[in-house]
Amino acid sequence: MANNGAKDPLLSGSLDATQKTKQQLLNKRRLLRSRSAPHAELVPTETNCNESIPRTASIFQNLHPSFKRMAIYLAVYLGVGALIFYLVRNQIKGQKTDGILDALYFTIVTMTTVGYGDLVPNSHLAKLLACAFVFSGMALIGLIVSKAADYLVEKQELLLVKAMRMHQKIGSTEILREVETNKTRYKLFLVFSLLLILIIVGTIFLVTVEKLDVIDAFYCVCSTITTLGYGDQSFSTQAGRIFAVFWILTGTITLAQLFVYIAELNTEIRQKELVKWVLTRKVTNLDLEAADLDEDGTVGAAEFVIYKLKEMGKISQEDISLVMQEFEQLDVDDSGTLSTSDITLAQSS
After folding, report:
1. Which among 45, 152, 229, 268 is placed 20 to 30 Å from 243, CA to CA?
2. Contact status, residue 201 vs residue 83, Cβ threshold 8 Å
3. Residue 16 is assigned to a structural domain of this protein
4. Is 43 within 8 Å of 106 (Cβ atoms)?
5. CATH code at position 270
6. Per the domain annotation, does 171 fall within a domain?
7. GO cellular component terms (predicted)?
8. Rounded to whole angstroms, what are the CA distances from 11 to 16, 18, 169?
9. Main-chain phi, psi angles of 67, to 5 degrees
């Protein structure tokens, strides 16, 4: 009995140590498994490696509300602009082909700030209308670049990655992970490819339809998509202006989107360099003091993660304070933890 009694404390201590180790591992697993709310379009369905990804069936299926909204804005702008400039067509001078087509063409040229000079307002009213439409058009292009164009590019990212990994047996989860990791690079590649295609198509069209030589055609393409618009070369035929209505708008927006992605990629590279520096530098006692949020003399995994994220610039103290306020509001029983009963009580109050 004495021997058994002597062994009890040792056995108890061993069990406590084992339970503590298990609890630490459990906490670590919980931290690793924690994630933010999944993006509505990035939640993969259970598929095998050979199955196609449902969301890439067509870029026009299940259109995002922002894309639909931008399409409506653009249609209204072009419709109103074409109607107004058609009504004042006698107050616009220059090379004319067809009344409605010229009005729509003039609206596009004004909106994109290309301004060839082949059609120009010739009255006070026409000039004031042109001023109004150029500013509203620039604002609309800004919205299109930030919303709709970016959405269309993102819809094709999975198709690009899947095509690049055609001979590799990888599932949808791996593809989604790669897209998320190299998102900006894929966007830049897609937009650059589209811009190159638009330049080639525009040059060929100007050579074959507008009867320009190759150098003049390429020169006209470059001056158009950069909105330089010297005016010495432009679309003067009816067929050319029908083509220009679609091509000019697409080309100028694509070039603007390319510059956006170049800036975004540069920012992303600098962010990754900062993250690498934060993760590789040595942790000091000052870091531990700053990371000790509850000031209990020790730094837990959650505190350390929050501190490192703050150093990386991914979150701020204000973000943390706002999250903590929400936590305190949900923690009805002031236990320091959240449970189903807390959520129920918080929602009912």
Report:
1. 152
2. no
3. no
4. no
5. 1.10.287.70
6. yes
7. plant-type vacuole membrane; plasma membrane
8. 9, 11, 51
9. -65, -45
CA dihedral sign of residues 186, 248, 108, 59: negative
CA gap 2, 6 in Å, rounded: 6
Q: Which residue has the tokens 């992970």?
A: 177
Q: What DSSP line would sit under 136-169, residue for residue?
A: HHHHHHHHHIIIIIHHHHHHTHHHHHHHHTTTS-
The CA-CA-CA angle for residues 176, 180, 181, to 5°, reads: 115
Extract long-range pairs of 141-144: CB within 8 Å, 24+ residues apart.
Answer: 141/111, 141/112, 141/252, 141/253, 141/256, 143/70, 143/73, 144/70, 144/74, 144/253
CB neighbour list of residue 173: distance below 8 Å, 6 or more residues apart: 44
Using one digit for the tens of pLDDT, what is the confidence trace for 330-345? Answer: 888 888 788 888 788 8
**Domain range holding 259?**
60-274
d(CA 104, CA 79): 8
**Residue 174 placed within a domain:** yes
Q: Can you tell me the distance from the alpha carbon of 149 to that of 256, in angstroms, rounded to the nearest whole number?
A: 10
Flag the least confident range among 21-35, 65-79, 243-257: 21-35
Q: What's the pTM?
A: 0.62
Pairwise CA distance, residues 207 & 201, whole Å: 10
pLDDT tens sequence across 179-209: 566 777 878 888 899 999 999 999 999 999 9
- Contacts of residue 144, Cβ cutoff 8 Å, sequence gap at least 6: 70, 74, 253
**C-beta separation of 103 from 94 below 8 A:** no
* Number of domains making up the chain: 1
